[in-house]
Amino acid sequence: MSLPELREVDVSYGDLPALRGVSLTAAAGEILSVVGANGAGKTTLLRAISGLLRPQAGEILLEGARIHRLPSHAVVERGVMQVPEGRKIFPGLTVRENLDLGAYTPPARSRRRESLDRVRALFPVLAERAGQTAGTMSGGQQQMLAIGRALMACPRLLMLDEPSLGLAPMVVQEIFRIIAEINRAGTTVLLVEQNTRQALALAARSYVLENGQVVLAGSGRELSGNEHVKRAYLGMCVWRAAAAGEASGYDNAVETTMNRVRLASC
Ligand code: ATP
Q1: Paired residues of 190 in beta bridges
Q2: Closest ligand 1 atom number to CA of residue 161
Q3: Are residues 73 and 181 in the same domain?
Q4: Which of 19, 43, 211, when mutated, tests ligand 1's pocket best, judged by the most ligand atoms within 8 Å of its CB?
Q5: In this structure, are 161 and 214 located in the same domain?
Q6: Which of 14, 25, 73, 88 is the most exposed place for a label (fewest CB within 10 A)?
Q7: What is the pTM of this model?
């Protein structure tokens, strides 16, 4: 059963098309990633699934049921939670207050205690800092809080919009490790990332989005070996140049920067 499935979805902002004929499927229980550069349509895709944007054409299904005409609160009630780009935590509230706000649907409220224990086990730092004002935490801790808050809603589908954005490589590793753990515990994950290398490594399957269209799909291994993906998203030509000169390191920060500028010379 798919969780979710998009069939030929078009989404526009006024006259500007942002998604064009997008079809994709995430099988229940898997990690699916969608990679692409700035403006490719990744956030639009998540917002359409969440019910925040209404497709002009096509269908979005969740376990076979059409959800693309439902309001966002009804989509949440069906078990879909989005962790937005930039985290969007409540900076003036404490960590605990932020987490409590995640459990706002009636079914999630009834499981609040159990969910809180799960979030504390996944993110011990959130337990240690329960009384701290959320806005005073580091970027990585705020990202953990945003994911923890989404888990408080007991999602069946967790959608993450660029969770690695602006974080140090070691923190990114930790966030990706935790995403894998969340998935192992049974939650389907739809991950949107510009950090292509990490996203391809983590997901069972991935889609490449360019100018609002799916241009490639496959396993991480298949896409990592694809020449277009290597040139456009993995910065392989820069890596080769670096390797040919002095042996220099290559890390997430470099990769993220390269993905953002999409070096024309590649
Ligand atoms: P980024 O990584 O920069 O967030 P993205 O892949 O998530 O990029 P989207 O944010 O989905 O891309 O944007 C897709 C296209 O839609 C872009 O051309 C963008 O400028 C446009 N767009 C996004 N939001 C709006 C909006 N609220 N109004 C008008 N155009 C928008």
Answers
A1: 32, 159
A2: 7
A3: yes
A4: 43
A5: yes
A6: 14
A7: 0.86
